[in-house]
Amino acid sequence: MADTLAGLAGQLETHVKALRRAGDDAALLAAARDAADQIERGCGAQDGDEREALTMVQRWTFNAAADCWPGWSVSDKPISPDNLLAARELAERSLGLVRTLELGPLREATGVWMVGAFDLALGRYHEASQLFREAREQYVAASAPGLVLLTEGYAAIVRQVGKQAADGDDLDQVCKRIAAGGFEDGDEWIAQLRTALEVFARKNS
């Protein structure tokens, strides 16, 4: 039994990490949620290490949610709406902790993007558009021009799969801008965007 809240959080994070390798999304999401509940219930009861413990909760809730986002790769595996909703809740929880812990605009932007990414997966295109717009503003504030463009790419995907009116560059144009920017991760971002478009275009076909 851990003597401190941070020690307990470390043990729980190890358990969540093990489940991330197991391939059972529902079990991972439930464990991450329950572990977060356990730590948050302990806040206030033990002094001094709450921030460290909550930082771990923020990390594992984000990672567990991200692992369950279907846009990373094309798969014939059916997408579970229940898992998407549970993962979106974890992403929101992680974002709330980013804000509570004041981890800065870059982390907040990524948290907002992740919630929007689940709205994209759930077919909530209006909500996804709003969140990607908010994430873009945060990336601008964080002076992260490459991630600004990456987020614009996701906004373009929403417009394409949601059959929305043009309001900005299409995905091909965004990818050209990323390629021209000379970003270290530019090729990976372009591949990521192309894959996400294929996943969600197939889902809607």
TrEMBL record:
Lineage: superkingdom: Bacteria
Protein's UniProt name: Tetratricopeptide repeat-containing protein
Organism phylogeny: Bacteria, Pseudomonadati, Pseudomonadota, Alphaproteobacteria, Hyphomicrobiales
